Amino acid sequence: MIELRRYRHGDLPADFRDLLLGVHADAYATQMDDPFIQRFPWFVDHWSGLVGFDCVVGFDGTEPVGFAYGAPATPGREWWRECLARPPEHSDTFSVSELMVRPRWRKTGMSDQLHAALIADRPEALAVLLVDPEHPKVQDLYESWGYRKVGDRQPFPDSPRYAVMLRDLP
């Protein structure tokens, strides 16, 4: 049975960074020569340092199987903003930055569990995430969770051009 544990900004254990980096190393083992993939430690440090950072990690016993994390978007800098002509009436947004599952636990429903736990009870009106369109099955999965593509965005010069996906939160 998988146990889900929540971690928040200001309440992270000393080994938190290593925990996420270990999952990442397994999930991207065949792509570790990609310079953008190699920057993941910076992203962990950046996101976990944000006020409002929220992370859910799944454990099979003591072994981490995957995680999902994000933080509230800075008003005026939401990823969807450059894609929509008019902002939604209620535009406070939670940015889902990462959803990662180790290969052994893929196709088990783990990503759905992690994502659902991450966005459950969020006070924001919207959730946004970016998905590499080179992975249409992943985009289809997000659509099945209520996301819709609203545009495209390349957040860094060395990153892929991502599909921006937005959904309403209850």
Automatic annotation (TrEMBL):
Top-rank lineage group of the source organism: Bacteria
Domain N-acetyltransferase: 2-170
Descriptive protein name: N-acetyltransferase domain-containing protein
Lineage of origin: Bacteria, Bacillati, Actinomycetota, Actinomycetes, Kitasatosporales
